Amino acid sequence: MDVEQIARRDLAVAFRWAARLNMHEATANHFSVAVSPDSQNFLINPAGRHFSQVRASDLVLVNANDAKSSANVDPTAINLHGQIHKLLPHAKCILHTHMPYTTALACLRNFEFLMLDQNACRFYQRIAYDRDYFGMALAASEGERVALVLGESKNVLFLANHGVIVVSNSVAEAFDELYYLEKAAQLQVLALSTGRELAIIDDETASLVCKQWLEYPKSAEHHFAALIEILDQESPEYKN
User: Fold this and answer.
1) Distance CA 176, CA 198 (A)
2) Is 188 exposed, middle or buried, given 0-12, 13-18 or 19+ CB atoms closer than 10 A?
3) Residue 39 carries which DSSP code?
4) Which long-range contacts (CB under 8 A, 24 or more apart) does 38-43 make?
5) Residue 64 has pLDDT above 90, yes or no
6) For position 154, what pLDDT does the model report?
7) Residue 92: how many other CB atoms lie within 10 Å
8) Is residue 181 within 8 Å of 164, Cβ to Cβ?
9) Which CATH architecture group holds 3-239?
10) What's the confidence (pLDDT) of residue 67?
11) Which residue, 78, 84, 85, 80, is CA-closest to 35?
12) What pLDDT is recorded for position 70?
């Protein structure tokens, strides 16, 4: 398969598994992946397609500098993803969701992700926070503002009163990050709900564990390959 065919397959896998894991909002939320070296050409889900039904051929090829190429895509998707791809070319894959536990934490005033368990430490000093909610991204200027808040040094952006954006070099890496972020967020919501004192991991240990996560051999690749294998057996039409 060529670069675009692989990207179409992988992004379709991400949509299907986001639906299976309840990390989606039906036909809302958007995933995209760049298919050109400069990240200006990218694939994204079409308006109105349910996450659980996305197929490789459904994905729309968009140019970040050509509004005409995005006629079949939700405007908020173009304004967010288009500006991030345009301004942050290192963000090859962009996953934006309102997944429940992470979004719950994003709705807490001035909340910062707690180094509470091993999964949380993966995101040590890798999260940016957008504290200002201005409604839906119905203008390119909002997408530009969000891209600047995310910046070039972070991989996760908490959007106050909204959701989360995860960016990475590939669909496999981005989905692996999204998965573990939601697992860590779920644990934090549960731990906070007890009202008991939290045992926070110290900065030195959290930094070490983050490094261990990022250097762990082929973790994301193995995870994503397993997801592909399951879909190949149970829902092979996703590749069509």
Assistant:
1) 26
2) buried
3) S
4) 38/89, 39/64, 39/85, 39/86, 39/88, 39/89, 39/90, 39/91, 39/92, 40/64, 40/65, 40/85, 40/86, 40/89, 42/81, 42/85, 43/4, 43/7, 43/8, 43/11
5) no
6) 96
7) 22
8) yes
9) 3-Layer(aba) Sandwich (3.40)
10) 63
11) 85
12) 75
CB 148 within 8 A of CB 80: no
Res 8 pLDDT > 90: yes
Place of tokens 């993803």: 81
Q: Average pLDDT over the chain, rounded to whole?
A: 95
The span from the CA of 14 to the CA of 20, in Å, is 10
46: DSSP letter: P
Tokens, residue 200: 């926070």
Burial of 233 (0-12, 13-18, 19+ CB in 10 A): exposed
Both tokens of 226, joined, read: 């397993």
Q: What is the reported pLDDT for 138?
A: 84
Largest CA distance in the chain: 54
The pairing of beta strand 93-97 with beta strand 127-130: unpaired
pLDDT tens per residue, range 141-161? 999 999 999 999 999 999 999
189 backbone dihedrals φ, ψ, rounded to 5° = -60, -45
Q: What is the pLDDT of residue 68?
A: 66
> Which residue is it, tokens 């910062």?
112
**Residue 213: is its pLDDT beyond 90?**
yes
Mean per-residue pLDDT, 83-103: 96
Residue 239 makes CB contacts below 8 A (sequence gap 6+) with 9, 12, 55, 56, 232
